[in-house]
Amino acid sequence: MTTERNIAIAVTGFGSIGRRITEMLLDRREAYRQRYGIEARIVGVCGSSAGLVDPSGLEPERLYARESFVAGLTGEAFLGGVKADVLVEASPSDYVTGGPALHYLRGALGRGMHAIAVSKGALVVDLRGLLRLAGAHGGSLRMSAAAASGLPTVDFLQHSLAGCRVLSFEAVLTGTANLVLEEMMNGLPFADALALAQDRGIAEPDPSFDVEGWDTAAKLVIIANAALGADLRLDALPREGIGRIGPDDVARWRAEGRSPRLVGFLEYDGESPADDDGFRAGVELRTYGQDHPFAHLRGSMKGFSAVTDEMGVLTVVGGASDPRATAAAALKDFEHILAEC
To answer: What's one Pfam family the UniProt record gives for this protein (predicted)?
Structure first.
């Protein structure tokens, strides 16, 4: 951090989520002054083809005037031109190469910045490398928005459960899948339930990523690798989706009083989740009786339940899918950076 307590922030991936995060950061500047004694400034933003940099800070009238943006001020040109303490990375996810997000995160962490990852792809591809880079250059990497947005997961495991050993966890991590399952239990066919999720704006651009278990798997990889030291790979995870559920399944679950949920899970017997022979993980459809908190997740709500050796079973529910919740999760990470630095 700068010694003057002027905190310079750059945002890459200036799409809908990046814009929302920027708006919320600007709206909360007075709160940051009062709480942390800092002046938060947005000093640079960039999208896929253009960017804007001003060390004195950017106000909304310039941020939303496209003519202010400089064509080609992206990638290394942007990283080399912006002097920031914190990077918020919100580019579209690329789960094969990491895409631009991986380049931005590596560039920021290699320059000693703190980084807040919103997109998941870079974390799935090279989380360990990014964490090593952060440690080597005095920065930090936060990922609440990528791990499940408004639902605490990584920080829940790392901080709230720090005094015990986690034996297993299961989590409902994809709001779209949960909404579709609930609407199917209410009588809607799969296609109509998915269309409803799309109408509400919570489905991924390619909804198959949500309903075929890929989104849950990606978040599982991030959570397990970041918080428990596992080394999961997206392409190696057993994965189940919800597209093959039929009327007979729904009728049976109704008769049994059970609620279906698409869950990511990790279970192990060894001393550490990094024990390759000591755990199993994957994504599968599970059903829950009415005595389980997951049975009462409504709409696009999510849930996380961990079994520990000393604290018993702890469950967190909530964090319904919403762009505002995603942005708020990124701002939570920002406040953690302010509090710890």
So the answer is: NAD_binding_3
